[in-house]
């Protein structure tokens, strides 16, 4: 078994982990959906409050001009953008947070999402809590969860042609709408089934509430160690969503007599897959770290984000009677 920690691990309060709060040499990277006016307004509030607290605020090239805040430190968009930062504050929806994860993951910087989108399942705070959220960052009063990610390898004729990763999912999809994709799924070096389908989703527990959920997969609690395999619109008797060991290697082979396909990772990174291509998915040794302000049970997050009906529940009343 690997020594890498569980998919979700709550670390100590960041103030305790890092030591006493100091006024100098602190920085926070802001990543914002600058196409939204609300995100720009929110960024101005965040930048002002952090700067007043003596914290250097970084902004990405391409976003700094839209933010129009001369006090920010402009940094290039590369794997070192978040190096040395205490956290990456993300102002937008889940798509913006996935974009920020590209910058935070290589250096292990926690992501703190403020939801300005719709569901915002990965976000920790809502727009109405923005000022209080900034105060928690200033005083380092937050915990950190580690979320499992996956490494994705693409092979052609046995040769590796691409390596990438995903927090939510890697999806092999048909590239031509009018024709069905023919694939063979493999688990740990053994063939599982051939599917005529629209695609196959290979997801993490975090991604179980994203594309895999829409394709009919189960919701998996983040602390459960597993990989999901979910066929999309498969024409086959055996086409159920599967949960396999986190130590397993999942492979999807595009059959030679099928149309070309495409690999999508987190809906952001894409790789063309000609007939005969092979995609391998395995658990990564590099997690994504999420800053948490509230240690809310995952069940409560599901109820809140999806608006699930829970009226009539008597559990709390029975607990009070004991």
TrEMBL record:
Q: What catalytic reaction does the record list?
A: NAD(+) + ATP = ADP + NADP(+) + H(+)
Q: Where does NAD(+) bind?
A: 94-95, 99, 168-169, 179, 198, 209-214
Keyword DNA-binding set for record: no
UniProt-listed Enzyme Commission number(s): 2.7.1.23
Name the keywords, alphabetized: ATP-binding, Cytoplasm, Kinase, NAD, NADP, Nucleotide-binding, Transferase
Q: Where is the active site?
A: 94
InterPro entries per UniProt: ATP-NAD_kinase_N, ATP-NAD_kinase_PpnK-typ_C, NAD/diacylglycerol_kinase_sf, NADK
Gene Ontology cellular-component terms for this entry are: cytoplasm
Q: Which cofactor does it need?
A: a divalent metal cation
Question: Which Gene3D superfamilies does the annotation name?
Answer: Probable inorganic polyphosphate/atp-NAD kinase, domain 1, Probable inorganic polyphosphate/atp-NAD kinase, domain 2
Where primarily located?
Answer: cytoplasm
The terms under GO molecular function for this entry are: ATP binding; metal ion binding; NAD binding; NAD+ kinase activity
The record's Pfam families line, in alphabetical order, gives: NAD_kinase, NAD_kinase_C
Give the family from UniProt: Belongs to the NAD kinase family.
Protein name according to UniProt: NAD kinase
Organism, as annotated: Actinomadura craniellae
- Upper lineage: Bacteria, Bacillati, Actinomycetota, Actinomycetes, Streptosporangiales
- Gene label: nadK
């Amino acid at each position: 078994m690997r020594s890498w920690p569980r998919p979700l691990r709550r670390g100590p309060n960041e103030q305790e982990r890092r030591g006493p709060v100091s006024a100098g040499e602190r920085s926070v990277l802001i990543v914002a959906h600058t196409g939204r006016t609300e995100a720009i307004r929110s960024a101005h509030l965040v930048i002002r409050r952090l700067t007043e607290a003596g914290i250097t605020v970084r902004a990405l090239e391409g976003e700094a001009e839209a933010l129009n805040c001369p006090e920010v430190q402009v940094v290039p968009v590369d794997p070192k953008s978040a190096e040395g930062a205490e956290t990456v504050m993300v102002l937008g929806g889940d798509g913006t947070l996935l974009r920020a994860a590209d910058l935070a993951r290589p250096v292990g910087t926690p992501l703190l999402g403020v939801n300005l989108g719709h569901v915002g399942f990965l976000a920790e705070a809502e727009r109405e809590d923005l000022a209080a959220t900034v105060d928690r960052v200033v005083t380092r009063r937050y915990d950190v969860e580690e979320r499992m990610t996956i490494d994705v390898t693409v092979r052609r004729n046995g040769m590796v042609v691409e390596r990438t990763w995903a927090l939510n999912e890697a999806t092999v999809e048909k590239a031509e709408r009018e024709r069905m994709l023919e694939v063979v799924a493999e688990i740990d070096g053994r063939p599982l089934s051939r599917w005529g389908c629209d695609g196959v989703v290979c997801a993490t527990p975090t991604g179980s509430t994203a594309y895999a959920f829409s394709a009919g997969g189960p919701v998996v609690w983040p602390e459960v160690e597993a990989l999901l395999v979910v066929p999309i619109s498969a024409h086959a008797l055996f086409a159920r969503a599967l949960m396999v060991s986190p130590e397993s290697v999942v492979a999807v082979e595009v059959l030679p007599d099928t149309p070309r396909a495409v690999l999508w990772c987190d809906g952001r990174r894409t790789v063309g897959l000609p007939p005969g291509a092979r995609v391998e998915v395995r658990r990564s040794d590099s997690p994504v770290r999420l800053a948490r302000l509230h240690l809310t049970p995952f069940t409560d997050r599901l109820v809140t984000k999806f608006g699930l009906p829970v009226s009539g529940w008597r559990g709390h009343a029975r607990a009070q009677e004991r």
